[in-house]
Amino acid sequence: MDKRLFIQLAAGMVCGAWNIAAHADGWPAREVTLVVPWPAGGGTDLIARAVANKLQERLGRPMVIDNRPGASGIIGTELVARAPADGYTLVLGVTNTHAINATFFRNLRYDPIKDFQPVALLATGPHVVLINSSTPARNLAEFVDYARKTRTPLSYASYGTGSTSHLISELFRARNKLDMVHVPYKGIPPAITDLLGNQVSMLVSTTGAALPQIKSGRLRAIAVIDDHRLAQLPDVPTMSEQGYENADYTHWYGIFAPARTPRPIVDRLASEIQVVLTRADVQKIFSDAGVNANFKGPDAFRTFVAAEKERWGKLVELSGAKGD
Q1: pLDDT per residue over 113-140, tens digit each?
Q2: CB distance 299 to 293 below 8 Å
Q3: Which of 13, 92, 98, 271 has its CA 20 to 30 A from that of 73?
Q4: CB-hemisphere CA count at 13 Å for 102?
Q5: Spatial separation of the C-alpha atoms in residues 170 and 94, rounded to whole Å
Q6: What is the CB neighbour count within 10 angstroms for residue 284?
Q7: pLDDT tens, 65-80?
Q8: Which residues pair with 127 in a beta bridge?
Q9: Measuring CA to CA, how many Å separate 92 from each of 40, 116, 230, 299?
């Protein structure tokens, strides 16, 4: 290599590294936007705001929540995948956006691994199987028996095609050879509303969204989809206890930045998030939402996401469900 060219390349690399470090040292110089690919007022939005409110105190700059719901989280997630990699636009990713969509949708316009830099895993939580309290069933076996004896097919709700709710329900339907109709909703609240009104027969839901209705007696939880019972619902058995093996399908929440975001910014964010997750008030909000704080830093989170993408991809194949 020509000596002058070598010196120019070396100088360019040094200057580039210096520019990244300088940029990171001055970050954040303005507000940071956290895109939430789900509607305001839901469990995902609640978790995002709990973290953002405390994170902005530590960063000294506003954290703005930008709700961009639609298309199983694709709209908001794709927006961040195409955003500048400068640390000022982040996304709250969940099981759907970064583990399921890549397998479920044939023409997904972002890659959950290549297009993002994982920052931190925030929380994980179980699902519950819900029915209306007027339904004559107290457990999964009784519900399956009830579904087989009805003259018209029952229906199951989900909070979106390709959601964790949809896939788990479809696997349950297929395993038990039930003739049930899928009714997708744009989020958990409308699905719960119709379950309360007996417009649908079953819903697999995140725990936090369902707890108030379970405790009021209007909805009945007949199974916890986890490897242990919940402290909030100690009398509700797990699916494993009811004869369903490998039925531990937790949902999770984490923060991602666009790929190639400078590592010093990512590390600063992860460090501050780790502190935020130790706060008792944040943990209380998480507990009320039916999830547990579960921090993983950038590298561990990347490994976690890759494993989750493979695990949920297998569930997509088992369920036979596919998106457009």
Answers
A1: 999 999 999 999 999 999 999 999 999 9
A2: no
A3: 271
A4: 19
A5: 20
A6: 11
A7: 999 988 889 999 999 9
A8: 206, 225
A9: 13, 12, 25, 17
pLDDT at 209: 83
pLDDT of residue 145: 97
Asked whether 69 and 38 are in contact (CB, 8 A), the reply is: yes
- Nearest residue to 308 via CA among 290, 323, 296, 320: 296
- Residue 22 main-chain phi, psi, to 5 deg: -65, -40
Cis peptide upstream of residue 189 (ω within 30 degrees of 0): no
8-state DSSP, 237: P
Residue 194: name the closest of 213, 180, 179, 211 by CA: 213
pTM of the model: 0.85
Please state, for a pLDDT cut of 90, what percent of the chain lies above it.
72
3-state class (DSSP) for residue 214: helix
Edge-first strand listing for the sheet containing 32-36: 63-67, 32-36, 89-94, 251-258, 116-125, 292-296
pLDDT given at position 2: 53
Lookup: tokens for 272: 């501050």
Is it the case that residue 144 has pLDDT exceeding 70? Answer: yes
Residue 214: φ, ψ to 5°: -70, -45
Residue whose entry in the numeric block shows the structure tokens 């927006």: 79
pLDDT averaged over every residue in the chain: 90
The encoded tokens of residue 249 equal: 């399908």
**Chain position carrying tokens 């039925």:** 247
Cβ pair 11, 19 in contact under 8 A? no
For tokens 């007949």, name the residue. 222
Strands 63-67 and 32-36: parallel
Q: CA nearest 290: which of 43, 52, 114, 89?
A: 43
Place of tokens 């009811």: 242
Distance CA 184, CA 321 (A): 13
